[in-house]
Amino acid sequence: MSATVGGWVAEGGGGIGSYEYGRISQNLESITFVTPEGEIKTLQGEDMDLVTDAEGITGMIVEVTVKTRPLGQDIPLVASFPGTKQVLQAFYQINQMQISLWHLSFANGGFTNKQKEAEIAAAKIKPHWGEPEMQDNDTSAITEGIKKK
Length: 149
Known about the structure:
About 35% of the residues lie in helices and about 15% in strands. By secondary structure, the protein is an alpha+beta fold. Among the domains are: about 5-65, Uridine Diphospho-n-acetylenolpyruvylglucosamine Reductase, domain 3 (2-Layer Sandwich), CATH 3.30.465.10; about 110-149, no CATH class. Strands 2-1-3 form a three-stranded antiparallel beta sheet. Helix 4 (about 110-125) runs antiparallel to helix 5 (about 140-149). The longest helix has 17 residues, at about 110-125. It is flat. The mean pLDDT is about 80.
């Protein structure tokens, strides 16, 4: 899997880090893009809304200035809960306590199995960059991971 900063901006990127720092549009200083007419434009502030989340219809993004933050100490944590109710209670308490979170995610066994099934299906129709397409009998490495869980 790969991505570009320009693609992330064009799609209105959110994901890991968004809980604390916001979506990509909240973390940009400027965007330079080439319009379909060939004009080079640089936008700042609220004007960047013309490009972020526009999926490329306003032009091709060629340069992005991203805000940075001071390096802090991240403490990775993993937690396990007996059920969904307890997970939701923990999320609520974290929010109420205003604990700074960089990323928060939830996965259960059903989700994990569906994710592996999707990887198998995707590998059959879309090979990794520069690799040949996967044949039906080539999915053994992925399916072994499902069987073990």
